[in-house]
Amino acid sequence: KAGVTQTPRYLIKTRGQQVTLSCSPISGHRSVSWYQQTPGQGLQFLFEYFSETQRNKGNFPGRFSGRQFSNSRSEMNVSTLELGDSALYLCASSLAGGGPRAEQFFGPGTRLTVL
Amino acid sequence: KNEVEQSPQNLTAQEGEFITINCSYSVGISALHWLQQHPGGGIVSLFMLSSGKKKHGRLIATINIQEKHSSLHITASHPRDSAVYICAAVNAGGTSYGKLTFGQGTILTVHP
């Protein structure tokens, strides 16, 4: 089975722009979670989607949003980018309804740099 | 104080040594993950446990729910074990139900 894929792998944007990141889960996995990793804050939970519904959301401003499609692929969007949004964005998928309570399979991440 | 604390933050060992990484949490949890992250960013799930002990090869993870503490042990460490090890707690209640809260990570370096 193919693993979790994320596109693009690297992205450079300027302040004020918006960005959309994509995540394709492992075939058969219906839960997708998104995480942000920065040197200062470490890993932080952004949100989790299951069956096209957001089930859980971390403590991030409304500029961070996401969605999930019927094929379980997920996108996250960051609007009005700030320098502090520079980070590695990771998604992870898990089987069925487990979400974070099930084994997480991580993608390689998208490294976003905001200039 | 962070909800999930790891110790030590940095750990250096010689090949063959027995290694222990600790994770303490202050919230009620339904499960705890141990993750491994190599340079370059890729994260691999090592264990997910909600009670007792799990073993996989040279890796052992234990959790004591009453004491709110988990440990990751590596027996006969090898340079390829060098990585960042991260514990993550799955919140069990309140407004944080189901969310993952991460420790700050332990940087392990194993010298040959």
Q: Roughly how many Å apart are the termini of chain B?
A: 36 Å
- Assembly annotation: heterodimer
> How much β-strand is present in the residues of chain B?
over 45%
The largest contact between protein chains, plus residue counts on each side, is:
A-B, 25 and 22 residues
Biggest sheet layout of chain A: 7 strands, mixed
Average pLDDT level of chain B: 92
Rounded mean pLDDT score of chain A = 93
Helix content of chain B: under 10%
Compute the gyration radius of chain A: what is it? 13 Å
Identify the notable features of this structure and list them briefly:
heterodimer, A: 115 residues, mainly beta, seven-stranded mixed beta sheet, four-stranded antiparallel beta sheet, 11 strands, globular, B: 112 residues, six-stranded mixed beta sheet, five-stranded antiparallel beta sheet, 0% helix
What do these coordinates show?
The complex is a heterodimer of chains A (115) and B (112). Chain A has no helices and eleven strands. By secondary structure, chain A is mostly beta strands. In chain A, strands 2, 4, 5, 6, 9, 10 and 11 form a seven-stranded mixed β-sheet that branches. In chain A, strand 5 and strand 6 (53-57) form a beta hairpin. The termini of chain A are far apart. Chain B is globular. Chain B starts with a strand and ends with a strand. Chain B is 0% helix and 60% strand. Chain B is built from no helices and eleven strands. In chain B, the strands form two sheets. In chain B, strands 2, 4, 5, 9, 10 and 11 form a six-stranded mixed β-sheet that branches. In chain B, strands 1-3-8-7-6 form a five-stranded antiparallel β-sheet, with no helix packed on it. Chain B is mostly beta strands and 112 residues long. Chain B has strands at 4-7, 10-14, 19-25, 29-37, 43-49, 52-56, 59-64, 69-74, 83-91, 100-102, 106-111. Chains A and B meet through strand 4, strand 5, strand 9 and strand 10 of A and strand 4, strand 5, strand 9 and strand 10 of B.
